[in-house]
Design brief:
Number of strands: 17
Number of helices: 16
Strand order of the largest sheet: 4-3-2-1-6-5
Structural class: alpha+beta
CATH superfamily of the largest domain: Nucleoside diphosphate kinase-like domain
Strand content: 25-35%
Largest sheet: 6 strands, antiparallel
CATH class of the largest domain: Alpha Beta
Number of domains: 3
CATH topology of the largest domain: Alpha-Beta Plaits
Distance between the termini: 25 Å
CATH architecture of the largest domain: 2-Layer Sandwich
């Protein structure tokens, strides 16, 4: 595998500050995990890569507009010239010192009474400078709810808490920024929504909550609480956590594309879907690799000239996949998404998702199922990535058939 050649050389213009990360890339041709040093220069948005094992330059310094400083944190997946890199560690003391203390994680939980306002709450989260790194719609069992509210077990309102938190779906998110725990608590406001309307009238609980139990959203108070609660919803062991909310009936698939998530459009798109009277019955953020994207888009190969660009966009960052419900959902939701080309959509269907949020035919905000007969193939991806039908070990062998002569394996 050779490195990239860059011509002409980049002018540095005194942009000397750089951040270094250790990154891994799975090479599907050699079936090897390759390790690199990824250097990012925020002054001019340039990148550089070095092969750790062979001690050589893999990518000379070159400008790369699709990577931002806020994308660089441990555990994130970033796409650099069609290679999906996983950032596993800081590459030097300066980077660890400058960025390590600034990136704090906490849990943001939207409770059953505010799930319909998820778009508005995500808008608040994005505008406050948070990055959403994980997201999943779930339902809690009584045991999971009791574990979550363990600190309140001796309180007289404990049973009411359990009954409320298990009364409908919740949306759990891992959110990231400097001083995340305190900043999220500030956005939430006082625990009692009535008090919040007096003391913090613009807070989430003041606007979307009702009382001390039905108070819209939750955030942990400390590092220890944040770690414990995130482990419940997003187990580090790779388990599924609480059950997903998929219904599997009268539904279609929608994926909000990486560019739209990265540009902070997630909340606005969710609000638009709700306002058009569609129900989001399941939802999860995930990253796809190239192999799975190619299989997901198999029906477009050789048919759509932009196939390769479509594949690259879909695995370039985090997506949000949803199960959408309504009458005749495949047809009605496809019409709501609009033509694939946003320019055409703006002329012919100006109120559609792609007309409003799309940029190009590739970066057109959302993917939706085009034909009912394509739904089974797309459902396999949903099964593997958002529905959690299979265990982690089983996912490598999940298969589905588009026809009697074709089997797709993930």
């Amino acid at each position: 595998m050779g490195g990239y050649e860059v011509t002409p050389p980049l002018e540095t213009k005194n942009h000397s500050e750089r951040f270094v990360f250790i990154a891994e890339w799975y090479d599907p041709n050699a079936s090897l995990l390759r390790r690199y040093k990824l250097l990012f220069y925020p002054g001019d948005g340039s990148v550089e890569m070095h092969d750790v094992k062979n001690h050589r330059t893999f990518l000379k310094r070159t400008k790369y507009d699709d990577l931002r400083l806020e994308d660089l944190f441990i555990g994130n997946k970033v796409n650099v010239f069609s290679r999906q890199l996983v950032l596993i560690d800081y590459g030097d003391p300066y980077t660890a010192r400058q960025l390590g203390s600034k990136k704090e994680k906490t849990l943001a939980l939207i409770k059953p009474d505010a799930v319909s306002k998820v778009g508005e709450i995500i808008e608040i989260i994005n505008k406050a400078g948070f990055t959403i790194t994980k997201l999943k719609m779930m339902t809690l069992s009584r045991k999971e709810a009791a574990d979550f509210h363990a600190d309140h077990q001796s309180r007289p309102f404990f049973n009411e808490l359990i009954q409320f938190i298990t009364s409908g779906p919740v949306i759990a998110m891992e959110i990231l920024r400097d001083d995340a725990i305190c900043e999220w608590k500030r956005l939430l406001g006082p625990a009692n929504s009535g008090l919040a309307r007096t003391d913090a009238p613009g807070s989430i609980r003041a606007v979307f909550g009702t009382d001390g139990i039905r108070n819209a959203a939750h955030g942990p108070d400390s590092f220890a609480s944040a770690a414990r609660e995130m482990e419940l919803f997003f187990p580090s062991s790779g388990g599924c956590g609480p059950a997903n909310t998929a219904k599997f009936t009268n539904c279609t698939c929608c994926i909000i594309k990486p560019h739209a998530v990265s540009e902070g459009l997630l909340g606005k798109i969710l609000m638009a879907i709700r306002d058009a009277c569609f129900e989001i019955s399941a939802m999860q953020m995930f990253n796809m690799d190239r192999v799975n994207v190619e299989e997901f888009y198999e029906v477009y190969k050789g048919v759509v000239s932009e196939y390769n660009e479509m594949v690259t966009e879909m695995y370039s960052g985090s997506c949000v996949a949803m199960e959408i419900q309504q009458t005749n959902p495949t047809k009605t939701f496809r019409e709501f998404c609009g033509p694939a080309d946003p320019e055409i959509a703006r002329h012919l269907r100006p109120g559609t998702l792609r007309a409003i949020f799309g940029k190009t035919k590739i970066q057109n905000a959302v993917h939706c199922t085009d034909l009912p007969e394509d739904g089974l193939l797309e459902r396999c991806v949903v099964d593997c990535y958002i529905i959690d039908l299979a265990s982690e070990e089983e996912r490598s062998t999940v298969t589905c058939s588009r026809s009697s002569s074709q089997t797709v394996s993930f």
